[in-house]
Structure to design on (339 residues):
C-alpha cells in the first residue's frame, strides 16, 4: 500500500480571496500544518488581496481595574484564585487618570486605546457609568476605543455602543474541547452569549485566544473554526502567546516556539481575510525577524506601549524603530466593516 501523501500547497485547494463561514476543523488544521513557506506565502497573498500591507495598527492597553477577579482562568495573574501571584486587588481607576494615560498613548502614536478590567461582569451603577465616560473621552481624542470587562448583558452592550465604543474584547482563549482544562467558573457558551450581545449592539468584536497553554494543534484550529464561522468575522483577532506568570497554574509552561505564532497568525489571516490579526501578549519574546515573519503572514496590529495589563510589553522606541525599518508609515484607518 502506498502511504497517503502529506498535504502540500499543490494539492490543498487554494481558497483565494473568498470570504467563508463554513470551515471545518480538518481544513483549518491542514492549512496550519502546511510547509511553513507555503503557509506564509498563502497568507501573504490573502492579506494583500484584502488589506493594505503598510497598515499596521498600534493599540495601547491599560488595566483600569486590576486584580481580585472571581474567575479562575489558569493563565491569568489577576485571578483571586491564584494568590501566589501576589497581585493585589485594586479599585477602578478614576476617569481623569485613565484619560491622561489615553492622551499619552495617542501622543506616542496609538490608534486604539484598550481598557481592561478584572471583572467577571460589570455591575450597573457608578463604576459602569465611569467606564462609559472613559469610552466617550477616548473617542473624543480621535482614537478607537476598546474595553474588556467580562460578560455583558444586552443592555450594557447597548449603553457601551451609545457611548461610541469601537470594539469589545472578549476572547474564546482556546478550542471548545480544551477550554474546561483552563477555566471552570464560566463556560464556552457564556463567552459566545456575550459575543452575540456585543454584535447585536453594533459594536466591533475583538476575539481571539492564547497559544502555549498545553493545547494541541487541533484545539488551535478548533478555536479558529469557531471564530471564522461567525458571520461576520470578528473585526479583530488577538493572538496571544502565554505569558507564564509565576504563581499561576501555568507558571511552568515552556515558551511557545515563535514559528507556532507565525503559523497561528497565518492561519487566522487565511480563514478571516479582513480581520485585524493582532500579534498580542508574548511579543516581547519574539525577535524582530520573527515579528516581521508574522507581519508577512498577515498580522496587522500590535499592542504598543511598555505595559500590557500586568506584565511588560516591548519597548516603545524599539517598536517605533522596527516599524520604521520595515517602512510602515501609514496611519491605520478607523475600523472597517467586517464580512
Ligand atoms: N476579565 C476580562 C475577560 O477575561 O474577558 C478581561 C481581561 S482578560 C486579562 C483579557 C484576555 O487577556 C484574556 O481573555 C486572555 O486571552 C488574555 N490573557 C490574560 N492573561 C494572559 C497571559 N498570562 N498570557 C497571555 N494572554 C493572557
Ligand atoms: C488580549 O487578547 N490580550 C490583552 C488584551 N486582550 C486585553 C491582554 C494580555 C494580558 C497579558 C498578561 C498581563 O499583562 O496581565
Ligand atoms: Fe478574570 Fe479576565 Fe483574568 Fe479570567 S482572564 S481571571 S476573567 S481578569
Amino acid at each position: 500500500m502506498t502511504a497517503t501523501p502529506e498535504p502540500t500547497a499543490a494539492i490543498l485547494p487554494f481558497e483565494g480571496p473568498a470570504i467563508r463561514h463554513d470551515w471545518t476543523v480538518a481544513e483549518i488544521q491542514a492549512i496550519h500544518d502546511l510547509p511553513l513557506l507555503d503557509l506564509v506565502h498563502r497568507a501573504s497573498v490573502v492579506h494583500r488581496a484584502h488589506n493594505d500591507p503598510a497598515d499596521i495598527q498600534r493599540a495601547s492597553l491599560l488595566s483600569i481595574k486590576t486584580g481580585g477577579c472571581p474567575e479562575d482562568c489558569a493563565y491569568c495573574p489577576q485571578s483571586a484564585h491564584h494568590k501566589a501571584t501576589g497581585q493585589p486587588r485594586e479599585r477602578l481607576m478614576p476617569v481623569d487618570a485613565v484619560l491622561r494615560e489615553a492622551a499619552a498613548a495617542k501622543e506616542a502614536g496609538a490608534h486604539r486605546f484598550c481598557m481592561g478590567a478584572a471583572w467577571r461582569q460589570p455591575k450597573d451603577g457608578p463604576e459602569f457609568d465611569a467606564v462609559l465616560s472613559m469610552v466617550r473621552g477616548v473617542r473624543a481624542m480621535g482614537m478607537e476605543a476598546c474595553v474588556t470587562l467580562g460578560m455583558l448583558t444586552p443592555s450594557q452592550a447597548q449603553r457601551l455602543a451609545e457611548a461610541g465604543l469601537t470594539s469589545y474584547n472578549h476572547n474564546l482563549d482556546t478550542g471548545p474541547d480544551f477550554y474546561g482544562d483552563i477555566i471552570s467558573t464560566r463556560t464556552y457558551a457564556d463567552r459566545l452569549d456575550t459575543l452575540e450581545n456585543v454584535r447585536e449592539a453594533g459594536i466591533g468584536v475583538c476575539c481571539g485566544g492564547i497559544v502555549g497553554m498545553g493545547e494541541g494543534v487541533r484545539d488551535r484550529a478548533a478555536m479558529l473554526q469557531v471564530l471564522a464561522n461567525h458571520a461576520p468575522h470578528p473585526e479583530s483577532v488577538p493572538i496571544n502567546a502565554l505569558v507564564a506568570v509565576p504563581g499561576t497554574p501555568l507558571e511552568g509552561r515552556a515558551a511557545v516556539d515563535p514559528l507556532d505564532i507565525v503559523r497561528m497568525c497565518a492561519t487566522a489571516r487565511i480563514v478571516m481575510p479582513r480581520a485585524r490579526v493582532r500579534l498580542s501578549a508574548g511579543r516581547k519574546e519574539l525577535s524582530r525577524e520573527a515579528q516581521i515573519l508574522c507581519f508577512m503572514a498577515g498580522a496587522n496590529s500590535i499592542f504598543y506601549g511598555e505595559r500590557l495589563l500586568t506584565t511588560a510589553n516591548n519597548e516603545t522606541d524599539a517598536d517605533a524603530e522596527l516599524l520604521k525599518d520595515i517602512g510602515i508609515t501609514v496611519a491605520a484607518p478607523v475600523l472597517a466593516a467586517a464580512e
Notes: Residues 1-5, 7-13, 333-337 have pLDDT under 50 and may be disordered.
